[in-house]
Design goal:
Chain B: It is found in: Membrane. The complex is a heterodimer of chains A (about 400) and B (about 525). With about 400 residues, chain A is mainly α. Chain A has eleven helices and five strands; from the N terminus they run ααααααβββββααααα. Chain B has a five-stranded antiparallel sheet. In chain B, strands 6, 11, 12, 13 and 20 form a five-stranded antiparallel sheet that branches. The longest helix of chain B is centred in the first third of the chain and has 30 residues. Classes of the chains: A mainly alpha (about 400), B alpha+beta (about 525).
Amino acid sequence: MEKAMEYALFAAFFFYLFSTIAYVVAVTGKASRVGKEVHIKRWGKRGLILAMIGGALHILFTVIRIGISGHFPTSNMFEFTAFLCLSIVIAFIIIYFIYRITVLGAFVMPLAVIMLAYAAVFPTEVKPLIPALQSYWLGVHVTTVAIGEGALAVGFVAGLIYLLCWVGQGNRAHTRTASLLEGVLAILLMLVGFVLLSASFGGLGYQASFQHTVDGKPVVEDYSMPPVVSPINSKVVAMDSFPGLDKALFEAPSWLKGEKAASKLNTVIWSVVSGLLLYGLLRLILRRRLHVWLYPLVKNLDLEMVDEVSYRAIAIGYPIFTLGGLVFAMIWAHEAWGRFWGWDPKETWALITWLFYSVYLHLRLSRGWHGLQSSWMAVGGFVVIMLNLIAVNLVLAGLHSYA
Amino acid sequence: MENTKCECGHSNPVGTTLCEYCGKPLEEESASGQPLEMRYDGKARRSQTKNATWVDHVWNFFSSVKVAIWLILITLIISALGTIFPQERVIPSGNPDVYYKQKYGTLGDLYYNLGLSDVFNSPVFMILLGMIGISLVVCSLDRVIPLYKALNNQKIEKNPAFLTRQRVSRTESVSEADRGEVLKALSQALQKKRYHVRTEGESLLAEKGRISRWGPYINHIGLIIFLGGILLRILVPGWYLDESVFVREGETKKLPEVNYYLKNEKATMELYDQTDSREQASKGQPLVKKYETKAIVYQKDPNTGKLKEVKRGPIVVNHPLKVGDILLYQADFEANQTQAIQLQLTDKKTKEDLGKFRINLYDPAKEYALDKGIKVRILNYFPDFVMEGNRPTTKSENPNRPAFVFEVMGPKLKKSEKSWMIAGTNLDDISKSNRYAIDLSRLETVNTSGLMVRIDKSLPIIFTGLGIFMVGLSMGFFWYHRRVWIRIQDGTLYVGAHTNKNWFGLRRELEQATQAAGLPLSFSPEQRREE
């Protein structure tokens, strides 16, 4: 059974990847023989079917995992991130059936691929639940949050497409929007870089560890990537060799305290550097800026339409997120911790996400923030969600730090 | 008050942008060719018409969505800052002034001094929430009233300028002969699409999903109730209690602040299978499966002073025990706490065993009688021993590191002997000259449960508020208010349509409806631009 579960997810990953390729072919292909319309339709359909098969396999994975573990697989970083990926795919399929915009797939599906790869960076074993998580609310609360965030993520992708379109259609390549957009793309590449590095170092089995003191107690800190930065006042315990790096280049700054702070900083450095390297490499190969390179994919879209897709996705995601992230969260928190709200970092960031999208909605509905401004807000909202997923779990300590 | 007169003869209050009667754009609105601003159907709001007294000024301030957005943004930023370091209530120290500086350095000190370490209980944050509450009430009232009036008194026949300047609009010439037929066919087609259609002369108004418009106001009411619930639990005495208590196995203890007693019958911790690596947290680290306290809750009879059982049951994480308004939660567990010690007295000269005695660390007896007329008396007891300078003292009442000064008296002693005993310390040197030695023979341990004692009478209000909020959100986001105006005038068919969201759906629906009516029209944005 365990093997079947692994294969299901593995297959889902590849179907997402194939779906991405089909969508990219749909919007970029020359289609000299059959004509543009037919070509887009044909490959768009293939992309959609591949995405649906991937989603079905992903659901199969989820079901088998429930069977094995006896609980809904949303109890740690791997399970949650994988489920978020599934939610994004489902939200995309729903939005696709409303608006039938093929291009959307060419941007959402790669995001799904990155998400699933990111999930796989974390330990994937099935673990039993600690007492606080033993409740049916685990399935209800966390899945609702993930589905809401999935829709909000589609809103972000549509927002990103809007920005690409806006910059390209108006020949605004030298505006501040264009530069910021390029920055966002570079940040996405850092996420890709992180995933690639984790996969490669994980595959190589790289390990290093340092000993230092935290709060007067000796602690051994393990690294899964070659140490560029070491914990302050630390001794090397063990360190696999890495070309050009026989010791850490520098120590973590003194204000950066806490458990595993230095290895997290080390990971961030690797991610940023690899993202920038990827970016530089792409620039060298493509010989143009990324948003210029991506523009042909989206050039035939109607701006007003893209704006609406983004808003619609957020209008679907917002109530669902509110229900899962605040209402269900409060009910469960009341049952498990004896208070419906406790300003735990994860809770607070769910509130921040909600406040952010509330601002988005008020600006849009009352202050007329459509199009460009709205799209930037959609991008910002996703940044907040990612901060809550990545930074809050890994950097800030709290009741929700399950990974 | 100054009024704005429309050419149709209707007098509109100041601040109206679209004539209340015929919908014709007034003043500057009429100048541009842009789609009309359809908010509240162009009706003036109180905040736009009154600006004389201080009440008006306050009202106008809080009625502004801009102000509301700033309030939300400030709350957002403060909340984010509040998560940088742990808040005071979760730090493992009672001295935040020292803790933040020690643990996080200068930044931590700054964090504490700015009040960010307890920001969610700060007056600033309370004031912000209060202002958001006021803003919710005022913004909603300022808008829902004119909107309600506008939607309740809609005129069917609108000015052609109102129709052509809708975001979705189309004009098409129709022959004199077809006029009646066209309108009828369109009316039927729209009714098939579940529109509520009203006609007047050669005009038509089709509307559906008006319920969607009340969504925002209903969700705001939900939020107001939610905030009201929070306010009540702060203000009304007895509505909110947040206490904790530690109860040892076998112990009966009064619960803080409430008139109940609790006996901890048994406290258990269960672990997952320790031999199965998949059931471990990490290599060799066991994972807890369950914490449970078997509890009996008593109430004291005011006349007899006896304890009367009220409720009995297990307290498990995620399953609190409810006694009246009180909820008891399993929050903490301390395994194997020493409750009592058994000591052994030996005659060092004769190596004779002179008996054992048991000391309850929570409530030690003063004197213990042993074999052969020997008595041991406790001169001093430090449950949580520590040296403060040269003076021994205790840190707390919990026997974390018990220390005793004993006095041993017996027939074979001329003078009583003093002897020291400190947990975890070898003191053989101090009492070398003593005849009798006191040694630890056994520890008696029990588990201790940490329970939370909670009362929150505002919960029904809070969750009702959230429920109403969700209903409002669903109404607002999953329904759409769509209106279509059609008018035939001078051989031209004017179609204008408005929705509060999902324009794509409206356009598609209109295209389908006009197709069904035998007059296929395109409503794409390109089409509109061409016109």
